[in-house]
Amino acid sequence: MECAEIRRGFLAGRVPAGPAVDAHLKSCPSCPELFDHGAVLGRQLAEAVLPEAGAGDLFALVERDVKAEVGLRARLRALATPVRSAALVGVAVALGLSQLLLHRREDFADYSAPLFWVMSAVLVLALVAGSLRLLKGASAPLAAQAREGRAAVQWLLLPALIALLMPLGTSSPKWLAAWGSPGACFSYGAVLVLPFVLLYWLFERRDDVPRAVLISAGALAGIAANLLLYAHCPSSHLGHLLLGHATIGVAWALVLGLVSRSPQRSR
Questions:
Q1: Whose CA is closest to 41, among 52, 50, 29, 32?
Q2: Are the C-beta atoms of residues 236 and 178 closer than 8 Å to each other?
Q3: Computed over its alpha carbons, how large is the radius of gyration of the chain?
Q4: Axis crossing angle, helix 211-232 with helix 81-102, rounded to the nearest 10
């Protein structure tokens, strides 16, 4: 049982019930709100989503929805949440490994291996947790914007926090003092992470995505970019890491946040 099935139950005009629903509600942080006070919120959500239609319009509505759920994106959106999340994280890891194999940082042999792999693991774990949250369910319950906003802030701050630790991995004055070109790293990471953003769009089940969710998606794209940049860029200059690496998530969050067509998307 997933959030999407809960929503579909309400949209079908009934209150979902049964052992599978009960088990889902124990582990889901969002869906229990729909069942409070006699499922008032769930019923209101269904009424807000479903247009009033006469008997003659019902077939047209069903036909429209069926036509919308065909093609490659429909098949990808239908995949289970763990599968979509694993694929999204897999793309980010593949981008990082490609840099490690083909464009490895010049100081890799001298850089602290334990610190490098620990920081990389932290980024990957953040991508796993963030992707699962991002792709869970077909729609966000009302009043969920605050929770999504807090999650987005966490993902946006993580690269900056890691940037504070990365200089500890080298004692070479050359790389500590290497300001390099933050703009080049920013452009490199922001462009290479495009497959991650595209795959998120293909996997996203919501047609009307809340703004806070889009910001979280941009923040996760920034984490994916930092993963590949740490394998590629030898600079341990704190200013370079903050300006050239950590800002990528902020930029993608702003770009995707602007995709929101109206204030209603942030509900």
A1: 32
A2: yes
A3: 21
A4: 30
The C-alpha atoms of residue 105 and residue 108 are separated, in whole angstroms, by 5
The rounded mean pLDDT for the chain is: 83
Nearest CA to 215 out of 136, 143, 130 is that of: 130
DSSP reduced 3-state for 236: coil
* Amino acid at the residue 98: S
For 76, the 3-state DSSP assignment is helix
CA distance 34 to 55: 28
Q: Which residue has the tokens 């994280």?
A: 89
* Other Cβ atoms within 10 Å of 13 Cβ, number: 10
- Does pLDDT of 72 surpass 90? no
Rounded Cα gap, residues 84 and 88, in angstroms: 6
Tell me: pLDDT of 127 over 60. yes
Per-residue pLDDT at 255: 93
pTM for the structure as a whole: 0.71
Q: What is the sign of the dihedral through the CA atoms of 105, 108, 113 and 115? A: negative
Instruction: Name the residue among 201, 95, 216, 196 with its Cα closest to residue 147.
Output: 216
Is pLDDT of 123 > 70?
yes
First to last CA, the chain: 24
- Dist CA 131 CA 200 (whole Å): 9
Nearest to 100 by CA among 206, 194, 216, 234: 234
Q: Please state, for a pLDDT cut of 90, what percent of the chain lies above it.
A: 48
In angstroms, the CA 81 to CA 87 distance is 10
pLDDT in tens, 9-47: 777 777 788 888 888 888 887 788 888 777 777 777 766
**How far from the centroid of its chain's Cα atoms is residue 160's Cα?**
18
